[in-house]
Amino acid sequence: MRPPSIYPLRHTPRHAWSPMTDAEWDALAPLVTHADQCRPGRPPADPRRLWNAIFWVACSHGAWHHLPAELGRADTAHRALRRHLEAGLLDRLLVAISPHPLAAAELAPLAWRIARAWRRVARLASMAQLMLARRLGLASALPCAPEDLPKPYLSEFAKRLAAHVRGAGPILLGFLAALHHEAMGRRHAWRLTDAPARS
């Protein structure tokens, strides 16, 4: 039986940040250290500390510069996270924590942190990457409600329709413009972090 192409949305159970345990790092290390070895440049001196830094920021409400000094430099962690998004490592980690048949059960304790790390750089994600997070049903990784995401199929429909319309009147042109606007999603509604809890 083939898995469904779109999984139901589900929230990953949230938890407070804590440094990775040895077991958690043993599960994550083969994936991230292999990715570091496959890219040009020098690999991080302490990849475990780097990922603890990424996860600290991912699970916090604050800016990158609030990263505690003992976890390293914020710009280094942010740059590494961006590189991992561009290289596709974060997408592979999303698959690993999803209901997909290729999921890795040993990464389940890191699911919240991985989803939130992906969310932190969602504005830099391609349309395909955004759709992957949605199709995997990972609500905790999404920067907004699903209806506020771009709608690639609607966008393609609007382009095809516009190509066949010649000399259209203002009503039809207004409809096409509204359709295009809807297809782009509502980026103003995106949030890369949750609002801090009020005391």
Query: Which spans of ≥5 residues are poorly predicted at pLDDT below 50?
Result: none
**Number of distinct beta strands:** 0
The percent of residues in helical segments reads 40-55%
Could you spell the SSE succession in H and E letters? HHHHHHHH
Largest beta-sheet details: none
* Overall pLDDT: 81
Radius of gyration over C-alpha positions, nearest whole angstrom: 19 Å
Q: End-to-end distance, in Å? A: 49 Å
Number of helices: 8
- Portion of residues in beta strands equals under 5%
What sort of overall outline do the alpha carbons produce when their principal axes are compared? Answer: elongated
Secondary structure class reads mainly alpha
Question: Gist?
Answer:
The protein contains eight helices and no strands.
Tell me what the structure shows.
The chain contains 8 helices and no strands. The chain has helices at residues 22-37, 47-59, 74-87, 89-96, 111-120, 127-135, 152-164, 170-183. With 199 residues, the protein is mostly helical.
